[in-house]
Amino acid sequence: MSDLRETLKEQIIEQLNLEDLTPADITNEGPLFGDDGLGLDSIDALEFIVLLESNYNIKIADPSEGKEIFHSVDSLAAYIEKNQ
Amino acid sequence: MKLVASCKISNQGVFLNSKLVPNTKSTETNWKKELYTKTGVTYPKFYKMDALAKLAFLSYSYLDKALKTESYADNDIALLFANAASSKTTDLKYIESYKEKGSPSPSLFVYTLPNILTGELSILNKWYGENVFFIEEKFDPEFYLEQINFYFSKGAKGVLAGWVESNDTNEECFLFFVENNGNELTIEELTNLYKS
Q: What is the pLDDT of residues A7-64, one digit of tens each?
C-alpha cells in the first residue's frame, strides 16, 4: 500500500499548492497540521475534503472526524483503504 | 527618518545593505526554497505561502539579522508595502482552480489579496501596528517617504517598507526599515538603494 501513500503525497502537494515541496519532504507518519508538521491549518482541511471527494469519491460524513483522518499521510491512507 | 537597514532579494542573490550575501545567487527555478533552507529559519508555513509572501518572508528573514526590533512595543512598527501587479499571479491560479480543475481552491483564495503578506509578517513578529499594501505603477521613493512620514506623525516609531513583485518575468523584493529619528532619508538615497 506504499504506492497509495506516495500518490497521496503528490496529490497533497498539487491540491494544496505546496510547489516548493517534494514527496520526499513529507513523511508517512509525521503530522500534516501545525508547526510540528507542514504548518497546515483549517483552510487546508477544506482542501483535504476536496482531495478525497475528487480523487477517491469519498465524502466525510462527520466533519469532527477530520482532525484524526487528516493527521498524517498514514491516517489519510488508512481512511481511504477502509472507505473505498 | 533614519535608515536602519535594507535588503533586496531576487534570483541574483540577497543584497543586505547593498552587499551580496555569499552563496545566495541561484539559477534554479526553486531558488526561493534554496534561500529558505539557507536562512536556517524553521517556519513550515513558508511552504504554504504564494510567491509574493515567500519573497517578503525571505527578504525579512535576512533583513532581520540587521535589525533590533525587540526594543519596540507591539504597536510601534508600521508596515508599508506596494507593488504593481497586486496578487495577479495567484489570482490567475485561483481562476484556473475553478475553471480548469472544477473546484475553487481555498488555499489559493487566501492569497488573492497581496496584503496577506503584511499579515504573515505581523503574525510572525507579533506586531500590532498599522499596515497597508498599495498598488503603484512602479517603485516611487517620494511616495514611500510621504507615507512613512504620515505613519510617524501618527505615532509609529519604526516602519518596515517594501516593494515586492512576482510575475512571469520578475520576482524581487526590496525591504527597508526606518526609524523616527536621525538624518532625513532623501529621495535620491532611497532611489539608489532600490537600484543597487
A: 999 999 999 999 899 999 999 999 999 888 888 988 899 999 989 999 999 998 787 8
Which of A13, A42, A7 lies closest to B30, judged by CA? A13
Q: Show which of residues 77-116 on chain B sit within 8 Å of chain A, judged by CB atoms.
A: 93, 102-103, 105-108, 110
Measured between CA atoms, the residue of chain A closest to residue B97 is: A15
Confirm whether pTM is higher than 0.90. Answer: yes
CATH class of A2-83: mainly alpha
Segments making up each domain of chain B, as ranges: 2-86+114-195
- What is the value of ipTM here, to two decimals? 0.84
For A38, which of B44, B103, B110 is closest by C-beta distance?
B44
Identify the CATH class of B2-86+114-195. alpha beta
